[in-house]
Design goal:
This protein is mostly helical. The protein has six helices and no strands.
Length: about 180
C-alpha cells in the first residue's frame, strides 16, 4: 500500500486541511467587512458580486471542512477544497501578473497581512495537489484506528502551528527590515 494510503497519513492530511480551512474561515466571518474589502481589492468580479461572494466563501470553506470529517463525504470534500485552492491560486496569480502584489491575500486575518506573491501561488498549488491526492486515495484507504486518529490529528495540529509560527516570524522579520539606510 502506498504511504498516502496509510490511515495515519490520511488522518493527518484530512485533519490538516480541516484545521487550515476552519482557521481561515472563522476570521473571515468575524471580520466580514474587512474580507469584503479584500475581495474588492482583487478586482476579479463585478462589484455587485463581491459582497455575496465574501459572505458565502467562509461558509463554503466550513461546509467542505466539515464534510472532510465525515468518511462518506470526505473524498468529495477533499476534491472541493482542492478546487477552491486552485481558484485561490489563480486569483493570486492574476494579480501578481498585473503587478498588484501589495494587496492582502485574505488568507488569514487578525492583523497578519500577506502580500500577494508567486510563493502564495505555489503554496496553493501544493495544497491543491494534497487535497486532490487525498480525494483520489480516500475511497481505497483502510479505516483508521484510535492510534491513527490520535497521531494523525496531533501531527496535523503541530504542523499547522509550526506553519503559522513560521509565517508570524517571517512577518516580524519583514517588519524589522529597514526600508532605507539612514545617512550618517
Amino acid at each position: 500500500m502506498p504511504l498516502l494510503g496509510e490511515p495515519v497519513v490520511t488522518v493527518f492530511l484530512r485533519s490538516f486541511l480541516i484545521l487550515l480551512f476552519v482557521a481561515a474561515a472563522l476570521p473571515k466571518l468575524r471580520h466580514g467587512d474587512e474580507f469584503f474589502g479584500v475581495m474588492r481589492n482583487f478586482r476579479l468580479m463585478p462589484e455587485a458580486m463581491a459582497r455575496p461572494f465574501a459572505a458565502a466563501l467562509p461558509l463554503v470553506e466550513l461546509a467542505l471542512a466539515a464534510g472532510l470529517a465525515v468518511p462518506a463525504t470526505a473524498a468529495a470534500s477533499a476534491a472541493g477544497l482542492g478546487g477552491l485552492l486552485v481558484v485561490f491560486g489563480l486569483a493570486i496569480a492574476i494579480n501578481v501578473v498585473r503587478g498588484r502584489t501589495a494587496i492582502d491575500c485574505g488568507c488569514f486575518r487578525n492583523g497578519m497581512k500577506q502580500p500577494l506573491s508567486w510563493l502564495l501561488v505555489g503554496r496553493n498549488a501544493g495544497l491543491a495537489l494534497v487535497a486532490f491526492g487525498l480525494a483520489w486515495i480516500l475511497p481505497a484507504a483502510p479505516a483508521a484506528g484510535p492510534f491513527d486518529l490520535a497521531v494523525g490529528f496531533a501531527a496535523a495540529g503541530l504542523a499547522l502551528l509550526l506553519g503559522y509560527g513560521a509565517s508570524l516570524l517571517n512577518g516580524l522579520q519583514a517588519g524589522a527590515r529597514p526600508s532605507s539606510i539612514p545617512k550618517g
